[in-house]
Specification:
By secondary structure, the protein is an alpha+beta fold. 34% of the residues lie in helices and 21% in strands. Strand 5 and strand 6 form a beta hairpin. The longest helix is centred in the middle third of the chain and has 47 residues.
Length: 530
């Protein structure tokens, strides 16, 4: 007497394995879609991809961060998120195949990823509630249930059917559930994005309603001759849309200006301050032209820009709070600025209070700060690299000491103190271009904030250094344009530039990496004259 094998015990076919892989991918998609919907009820930063991405940024070696910035520029965050999704997709395929052999294990694999996302979310510096775990956990539960159901449908026993008929029926049931679920998940994700966008509308509206006050201390007019009319040179003022952005925020904070507050507290503070944006706008407003540079900017790199900023003097606020600089006996030598996204930036109190135009800025080039650049308020301290001075989306200032606290970048290998190094850059001609013989205008910018630029020199190949013509100086806190008229002869040539700052220090030839306190060296480009 013989018995037919049960349809549930048949060996999975290649088609079954492909469908199981598809089931794993769909489970991951549903997990992310449900998480997107729940994120709208929590906060954007709690999404699993954002939370895991932030954790990756935190633990990535500095060399990896520098490579990402150098290679992908402002798109580094998009590349990171796409990378996370690719890894998730590969693992989802494996989990789907695992579920084909053992459904509970497959479902457990999906849940495990939810736990990873939840832990990443609640461990973020800006996480203030266990609710941040909800998007990842809710999404994981939905994905695990779906995968369990899909694999069950795929291998569902049908005693009255022949094996090949049972397999066909199971696959049809699988595809029906998969298709309907995919549609529902897409709708959930779209609803989540819409609800999240609604929450951000208050921030957008508050920025749109903000009317910048006239400065009590306007910036001096840019002197005639400060802007050279040379094709290819960086404009004196960098448009907001072109201003570089380097930060760790995978989701740009959208802050409602009406609810924003700034707290000033810590060592040496005799009267703690809690300020609204309206409080800042009611103070003496100053307008200044300042050049901002990123410590990740390599020699000749793009991460430097010049803008006209509107804000209030940070030193005035600190004095109002009773703060004294170390030179006057104050106990705090470090100001730790905290952003709404958890970033911490440590700045020397002495430099903030030595008379330079350190600002809490709310305006940039004639408009409220763009969200990408810190709306509603950011900090600026001329003469220091951004990672030790330019906190965006600032909400807290604590007075402490360098011995007592390391800001975000210091444990990751960057220097606690980082004055801007004297740098110069050739903007035109571009590397590997082929200018015509005759007069070729070599031009660019040089910067040494709070010291100014006194001289720029250009060298052709191994020839002598020749003085470039400097544009008029706006202030020692802004970059300075320069130009040199080169009588170019045919052939391949190396063009090199160096600057001398207002203190008489010549830009060093010695090449160093951006770590730990900024790159150094001369910028050169190679061109072929025809």
């Amino acid at each position: 007497m013989t018995t037919s094998p049960s349809p549930s015990s048949r060996e999975p076919t290649r088609t079954d394995r492909l469908l199981a892989a598809l089931g794993g991918l769909l489970a991951a998609y549903v997990s992310l879609a449900v998480a997107e919907l729940v994120t709208a009820a929590v906060r954007p930063e709690a999404g699993p991809v954002t939370a895991v991405g932030g954790a990756v940024v935190d633990v990535a070696p500095a060399a990896v961060k520098n490579w990402a910035i150098r290679t992908f520029g402002a798109s580094d965050k998009i590349v990171l998120e796409l990378g996370i999704l690719v890894v998730l997709a590969v693992l989802a395929v494996g989990i789907g195949r695992l579920a084909l052999r053992h459904r509970p294990s497959g479902a457990a694999g999906v849940l495990a990823f939810g736990v990873v996302g939840a832990l990443a979310a609640i461990s973020r510096p800006d996480s203030g509630s266990a609710e941040d775990a909800l998007p990842s956990l809710a999404g994981a539960v939905a994905g695990a249930v779906l995968l369990y159901v899909l694999i069950g449908r795929l291998l569902a026993p049908r005693p009255s059917a022949e094996p090949h008929q049972a397999a066909g029926a199971g696959r049809r049931s699988f595809l029906l559930v998969a298709a309907s679920t995919a549609v529902a998940a897409t709708a959930a994700a779209a609803l989540g994005r819409a609800l999240g966008g609604t929450r951000a509308q208050d921030a957008v509206a508050s920025r749109g309603a903000l009317r910048l006050p006239r400065p009590a201390s306007p910036a001096p007019a840019v002197p005639p001759g400060a802007r050279l009319r040379i094709a290819g040179i960086s404009p004196f003022f960098t448009p907001n849309k072109d201003f570089y952005r380097v930060d760790t925020a995978l989701v740009v904070p959208r802050i409602d200006a009406d609810g924003w507050r700034l707290r000033v507290h810590g060592q040496g503070v005799t009267g703690e301050l809690n300020l609204s944006l309206a409080d800042l706008l009611a103070r003496e407003v100053v307008e200044r032209d300042l050049t901002l540079a990123c410590v990740s900017n390599e020699v000749g790199g793009p991460y430097v820009g010049n803008a006209r900023w509107l804000g209030v003097r940070l030193a005035d606020l600190l004095r109002e709070a009773g703060v004294r600089p170390p030179s006057a006996g104050g106990p705090a030598d470090q100001l730790v600025a905290r952003s709404v996204d958890g970033m911490t930036i440590g700045t020397p109190v002495e430099e903030v209070m030595d008379g330079r135009d350190a600002l809490l800025a709310f305006g940039m080039n004639g408009e409220p700060l763009p969200f990408d650049h810190g709306f509603p308020v950011r900090m600026l301290v001329p003469g220091l690299y951004g990672y030790v001075s330019a906190c965006k989306w600032i909400e807290d200032i604590e007075l402490t000491t360098f011995d007592a606290y390391d800001a975000y970048w210091v444990p990751r290998g960057w220097a606690a103190r980082a004055p801007v190094k004297t740098q110069s850059r050739i903007d035109t001609p571009r590397p590997d271009t082929r200018p015509k013989a005759g007069t070729v205008m070599i031009a660019g910018v040089a910067w040494a904030q709070h010291r100014g630029i006194a001289r720029v020199e250009v060298r052709i190949d191994d020839g002598p250094w020749r003085d470039a013509r400097l544009a008029a100086e706006d202030s020692r806190d802004t970059w300075r344009q320069w130009v040199y008229a080169w009588q170019a002869v045919p052939g391949r040539h190396s063009l090199t530039v160096r600057a001398t700052d207002g203190a008489g220090a010549v830009q060093t030839e010695r090449r160093t990496d951006t770590m730990p306190d900024g790159a150094s060296g001369w910028h050169s480009v190679v061109v072929t004259v025809e």
